[in-house]
Design a protein that fits this description.
single chain, 7 helices, 8-stranded mixed beta sheet, 44% helix, 225 residues, globular, alpha+beta, binds zinc ion
């Protein structure tokens, strides 16, 4: 019985966290209408918590978040889950270190995705957060595993926590849902800066050695310990 109670408490906490994190998508102007979502893995369980499909951001509450298994089937919730649930469930099934997934169609990043062009690593903050270029994933239609497979194939063995799915938008991953939201916010920010840099010339590349040292410092030394 204790085990059940622990899981219930974890799910309650994640319903609140996932609900609250959607406000960050609005705050950083990464989404319009209902297009965009956050999910979190329930630690130690084959479950995820995700936004309900088609519900306005203003109407999201911890109670209307949807709990699904890692095949995308609803386990607890009164609403249908986000239409991106299958893609995100695929990511959780194949990337055990991932605790959160975010999807947006944020404007500048999606403009790069529409050209099928990776965002080149020309800013130190890109080296910090992404460890290199932000890669492009394949064109994939909703309805089967192809979006999930495209995300996993592109991000496996890549330091970037974000992928630009071609002609579609951004999927980002993190150890937690909050980390995945941060990657989505940073992805849009650098997409915009590099886009603007391109208007007046050619952004300068950063040497691989320097990218590696920036990434290592940011991931291992930076911030509060
Ligand atoms: Zn989408």
């Amino acid at each position: 019985m204790t085990v059940l109670t622990d899981v219930d408490a974890a799910i309650r906490r994640l319903r609140e966290e996932v609900c609250r994190l959607h406000a960050e998508l609005l705050r950083y102007q990464l989404v319009v209408w209902t297009a965009g979502n956050v999910s979190a893995r329930v630690p130690g369980r084959d479950l995820l918590v995700i936004k309900p499909s088609g519900v306005a951001y203003d109407e999201l509450t911890p109670e209307n978040m949807v709990v699904c298994d890692l095949n995308g089937r609803v386990v607890d919730g009164d609403h249908a889950p986000s239409s991106d649930t299958d893609a995100q469930a695929y990511v959780y099934r194949h990337m055990p270190h991932v605790g959160g997934v975010v999807h947006t169609h944020s404007t500048y990043a999606t403009a790069w995705a529409s050209r099928g062009e990776p965002i080149p690593c020309v800013l130190t903050m890109m080296a910090d957060e992404f460890g290199g270029d932000i890669p492009v994933g394949p064109f994939a239609l909703i309805g089967d595993d192809s979006i999930g497979r495209g995300i996993v194939d592109t991000l496996s063995g890549n330091r970037s926590p974000a992928v630009l799915m071609r002609n579609h938008g951004v999927f980002s991953i993190g150890r937690t849902a909050r980390a995945a939201v941060k990657a989505a916010v940073m992805c849009e920010d650098v997409a915009r800066t590099v886009h603007i840099a391109r208007q007046l010339g050619h952004p300068l590349p950063i040497a691989e050695r320097d990218i590696n040292s920036l990434f290592d410092r940011y991931q291992n030394v930076y911030g509060q310990r």
